[in-house]
Design goal:
By secondary structure, this protein is α+β, with helices and mostly antiparallel strands. It has helices at residues 8-15, 60-69, 78-89, 99-106, 116-123, 131-135, 148-174, 181-200, 206-230, 242-250, 307-312, 317-340, 342-349, 383-386; strands spanning 20-26, 41-48, 51-55, 72-75, 95-98, 202-204, 252-264, 274-285, 356-357, 360-362, 372-374, 389-390. It contains 14 helices and twelve strands. The protein is elongated. It folds into two domains: 8-200, Nucleotidyltransferase, domain 5 (2-Layer Sandwich); 210-325, no CATH class. Helix 3 (78-89) packs across helix 8 (181-200). The chain is 44% helix and 17% strand. The strands form four sheets. It has a five-stranded mixed beta sheet, sandwiched between helices.
């Protein structure tokens, strides 16, 4: 695009018909997550220079007609809004200008997750109203319970703030950030692809994943029993406790709480019953390996037991056997908590339907510009997790 011949705004209006700013307001379960059936789309605001229209659910038929006229949607964190419009109305934009991506690029990709409010403050523009968040959402009052006028004004201010930010960003792309404009448009196109990926998600075989997780748990129990036997531990030991693992390797005292009879009740409702009392006994464990220099933790006498530290220890004999078992245990436990048990847990927690994982693919996080994936991270899963990802194509 030759920005020297005509303004960017003129070029945009020439290339796209009926540009609109779009903002949605939803119920607040899991922060309005669009893939939870417990959430609803409560209000949509669209508009551009000099006009604004507000739509409630009973007016969405009219909204569909308006959206179908537009080739160009201006958004902030647009995947969220597009997910909702697609879910409820079955429409996606032909092209998008996402103000959050622009702010991320203006910062040389150092500003993670720019917010609309902070972006407007930085540019000296009208900021969002806080009344809905402060007086309703933060107090657990759902969007459907907010008075119409208050919610409408809040949504319209979001639209106006986004529109003002859009115009300011156009100036920046025409001026000091002209060299970033092609990258920005490419990333806006990427946003639509990522929205498609997130929306369709990954079909996951939850039942067989949980069966595999159970098998790993049995393997972990066997490792725990082996450690208990070769270290001659004769008291309850928590293999998941970093402090107790530290004392097993580097020495220390582990306190055991137990109850013991101290007589019988002589009176009252419990007369004749055995009376129990809690006691504590100490178990001293001898050091079997020297800790790495500088691996001390905040708790006195406790040293690091992470995988990197364990792999670097100079161990022989019993210590070498124990460390090998601990490293294998850590590998199995991580696989279970992250994938085989972790992904089914995430599906249940997020109220995702049909065992489909809807991960977040983030454009505004990594300084190098590459994508990141969160909640859950679906990048580079282990082969054990991949085997339960089901193709629908």
């Amino acid at each position: 695009m030759d920005l020297t011949k005509q303004s960017l705004t003129t070029q945009l209006l020439k290339n796209y018909s009926n540009p609109i700013v779009l903002d949605v307001e939803t119920s607040i379960y899991l922060k309005g997550h669009p893939f939870s059936t417990k959430n609803r789309l409560e209000m949509v605001v669209i508009g551009f220079d000099g006009w604004t229209k507000t739509y409630l659910p009973q007016q969405f038929t009219q909204l569909i007609r308006e959206l179908e006229k537009s080739d160009f949607w201006i958004t902030f964190n647009g995947k969220f809004d597009i997910h909702w419009i697609r879910r409820e109305l079955g429409i996606v934009p032909k092209s998008v200008w996402d103000c959050q991506i622009a702010e991320f690029l203006f910062s040389d990709q150092l500003w993670k997750y720019p917010s609309l409010d902070e972006s407007c403050e930085k540019r000296g523009l009208p900021r969002k109203l806080d009344v809905v968040k402060e007086e309703y959402w933060n107090k657990g009052i759902d969007t459907s319970e907010i008075p119409y006028d208050i919610l409408r004004d809040y949504a319209i201010q979001d639209k106006e703030s986004t529109l003002a930010l859009f115009h300011e960003q156009v100036k920046l792309f025409e001026g000091e950030h002209a060299d970033k404009y092609k990258l920005f448009r490419a990333q806006c196109n990427d946003l639509l692809v990522l929205q498609e990926i997130e929306y369709n998600g990954i079909l996951y075989d939850v039942d067989n994943s949980l069966k595999a997780a159970h098998n790993l748990e049995e393997q972990i129990k066997k490792i725990d029993n082996t450690i208990t036997q070769i270290c001659q531990i004769s008291f309850p030991f928590n293999h998941d406790s970093r402090q107790q693992i530290s004392k097993l390797l580097y020495g220390g005292v582990i306190e055991e709480e137990f109850t013991a009879p101290i007589g019988v009740y002589k009176t009252g409702l419990r007369k004749g019953e055995v009376k129990m009392k809690k006691f504590q006994r100490e178990h001293l464990l001898e050091r079997i390996v020297e800790p790495l220099q500088g691996s001390e933790m905040k708790a006195e006498g406790i040293y690091a037991t992470d995988e990197e530290t364990l792999s670097a220890l100079k161990a022989v004999g019993l210590a070498k056997k124990v460390i090998k078992l601990l490293l294998e245990r850590a590998k199995l436990a991580k696989m279970n908590s992250t994938y085989l048990q972790g992904w089914p847990n995430r599906i249940a927690e997020q109220d995702w339907q049909d065992n489909i994982i809807h991960s977040n693919l983030n454009q505004c996080v990594v300084v190098s510009g590459r994508l990141s994936s969160t909640k859950p991270n679906i990048q580079n899963p282990t082969k054990e997790a991949k085997q339960f990802c089901i193709s629908r194509f």
